[in-house]
Structure formats: structure tokens, C-alpha cells
Phosphate transport system permease protein PstA (Nocardioides anomalus), 364 residues
Amino acid sequence: MSTVDAPPSSRASLPLTAPRLPTWAPGLVAVVAFGAAGLLALLLGWGIPAFVALTAVLFIVGLPLWSASIEGRRGAVDRLMTSLVWTAFGVAVIPLVWLIYTVLSKGLGEINGAFLTYDMRNVVGDAQGGIYHAIIGTLLVTLAAAIISVPVGLFCAIYLVEYGKGTRLARWITFLVDVMTGIPSIVAGLFALALFVLIFGPQIRFGFGGSVALSLLMIPIVVRSTEEMLRLVPDDLREASYALGVPKWRTIVKVVVPTSLGGIITGVMLAIARVIGETAPLLVIAGKTDSVNFNLFGERMTTLPVYIYYSFTQPGTVAFDAPPGAEAPGIARAWGAALVLIAIVMALNLLARLVGRIFAVKKG
């Protein structure tokens, strides 16, 4: 009767645990890197950007080296990649934080009731003035552009996903949409100007022309975002609806679109945020005025980006009794208008999230 030989004693089993750095190790390395970079920056007279860059480099190099001596090569690579990801995140966030801080510090002092409810009609010199006419123009022009773009973009995306798979027309539409995505905004403004000049004459300047120009920039974004959201809807939902005898158009209206409605609304809001700050096409076709204009189809109409542009290029003169270093009144108004524009974009994004949550398909 034979017996199975026992494994040799020299064969060691693999350990289930490995040495790890303590949880406070990244913080300690960050503190050491901060101190070393600060000392070196003081000795060499470097500025804040060089100090921040050196701190990041010391942290990225120091933590993986320490990890390599304790955790091994795999742990060191993991620490290095994690440090690079966090560094890239910081590089992306720093300009955003700096931008928000600059706009708040320079524009918050201008925001008051008069600034939001008065226009620039008959405002001379350092008088207060306001942006009411620019706010109205921005909302009306952008709303009209959305009314034009959303149905066209939505129906185009539905055709590409639900009806035109593999057809030559769908391929051509996809190609043209990709081309339109990269069209410069000034080209869209020149197209709208040329279109309406042929119809109404060379002196035409009105808000609806700006809406048409912005719609050329919005439509490709709406098409691409909506198309991607519709493709994410599982085919099982479509097939289940067809199995119940529901026609295709009703399946799209009742199943496909509601399922992807949250993503579609987000795409539309991104398109609006993309065009609401455009200046060049509106300078070309919508023009500029100092008065409030509620009529998109008559006379010129000012938007917030155009108002900011003219406030910077034509800031006025500083008052004689102004303190040293005071800015021209137009510069202060421009910062205030920029803050209001950012607030409008933020409000639109919050509204999109709320609407998407309300109309999202209920789970469970």
C-alpha cells in the first residue's frame, strides 16, 4: 500500500499579507515635500508657481520611493499612479478655483438691485448703469436658440439610432454633424448674417439672427449627446415593447426617450452652457444696444458676453476724485456681468439635474 509523499519542507507557502505603509504616510510625505520645497523656494527666491510645482514633484517622487522599500515594486507603481492622478486633478482644479475667486472678488461688489434692474441708456461717465438689458437679451436669444436646436437635434439623433442604422444617409449625417462640431463660432455668425442680409438687406441686425447662429453651434452637441444616450438604452426594452404589439414610434416615445431623458437633458444643458457665453456671432448679427429690447425680431439686442466685451474695450474714464489705482467704471461692470453670467450657467446646470431626477425612470 503506497502513501502519498508529503510536500518538501523547503516549499514555503505564499504569505496572505504583505507589509504596507501606514495610513499617515502620504500626509507625512506631503508635509516633508511642502517644507523642503518652501525652504528651497525661500533660498532661491522662487515664486508661488515654482514652489507648488516643486512640492508636487517631491511628493510624486518621495512616496513611491518609500513604498518601494516597504511594499515592493507593485505597491510603488500603485502609489506613483495614484499620486499622478491626484496631481492631474489638482492641476485641473487650480485654474477653476482661481477663476471663481477672481470673478467673485472683482464682481461681487458690483452686484446690487440697481445693477440688475437698470440698463445703460443715457449712462455717461462713472454713473451706475446696469445689465438688465443684457440679461433679457441673453435669456431670449438663448431660449430661441434652444427652441430651434433641441427638436432638430433630438429628431436627428432618433433617426440615426432607431431608423438609419447602416444607411448611407445616416453616415453622411454623422459626418456632417462631426464637421459642424468644429465650426468656429464666428463662421456661424457670418452664415446667419449672410442669410438674413440676402432676405432683409445689409442693415439687418436683430436678436433672432443671433439665435440662428447659436443654434448652428448647439445642434451638433445635442445630436451627439442624445445619440449616445439613446444607444445606452438596452435593446431588451425595445424588444419587450415590440413583443407586446407596440408600434415603433410609440416604443420610442414611451420607452426609449423616457429611459434616456436624464442624459438628454444633461446634453441639452451642456449645449446651452456652450453657447450662452459666445460673443463673436452675436457681435456680427445681433449687434449692441443700451436699451431693453424684448422683441427678438426687431432692432438690435445686447447679450451679456457682448456687454462684457464692450465694457472692457470701452471702459470709460476714471473719475478725478477716484482713489489711486481705481479701475474705469466699465471694467467693474464687466466683472459684475461676468459673475452674473457664471451664476446663470450654474443655475441652468442645477435645473438640469433637478429636471433629470424628476423625469428619470423610477427603479425598484
